[in-house]
Amino acid sequence: VQLQASGGGLVQAGGSLRLSCVASGSTFSMNLMGWYRQAPGQQRELVALITRFGTTNYADSVKGRFTISRDNAKKTVYLQMNSLKSEDTAVYYCYCNQGAPYWGQGTEVTVSS
């Protein structure tokens, strides 16, 4: 499985960004997809996950601001990020679990205050 993430960039605090991640290769189930992030000097942390049936899970820090969704036909997972804060600055990694974990290359999000 290969994961290609896009949509990162520089945004002012309070602004919005939408991340996308397209899966390719042996994508026969992809039950769980989602996003993690890693800020400088910190460990990678969960942002949001979604099952193929639409069940979601969010980190407390992003609840009410971020929305994860997926299009199974397009093998794509999205992360709509609203009301961005400086503490959301990080590299965001797309994630997929299909019997084993797979990671995308990361897309950088910088929120200026």
If you had to describe this structure to a student in words, what would you say it looks like?
By secondary structure, the protein is mainly beta. 0% of the residues lie in helices and 56% in strands. The chain has strands spanning 2-6, 9-12, 17-24, 32-38, 45-51, 56-58, 66-71, 76-81, 90-97, 101-103, 107-112. The strands form 2 sheets. Strands 2, 4, 5, 6, 9, 10 and 11 form a 7-stranded mixed sheet that branches. A 4-stranded antiparallel sheet has the order 1-3-8-7, with no helix packed on it. The model has no long low-confidence stretch (mean pLDDT 95).
Strand content: over 45%
Task: List the total number of helices.
Answer: 0
Q: State the low-pLDDT regions, or none.
A: none
Structural class label? mainly beta
- List SSEs in N-to-C order: EEEEEEEEEEE
Which shape, going by the Cα principal axes?
globular
Cα distance spanning the termini: 37 Å
Which whole number gives the mean pLDDT? 95
Query: What Rg, in angstroms, do the CA atoms define?
Result: 13 Å
Count of distinct strands: 11
> Largest sheet, described in full?
7 strands, mixed
What is the helix fraction of residues, given as a range?
Answer: under 10%
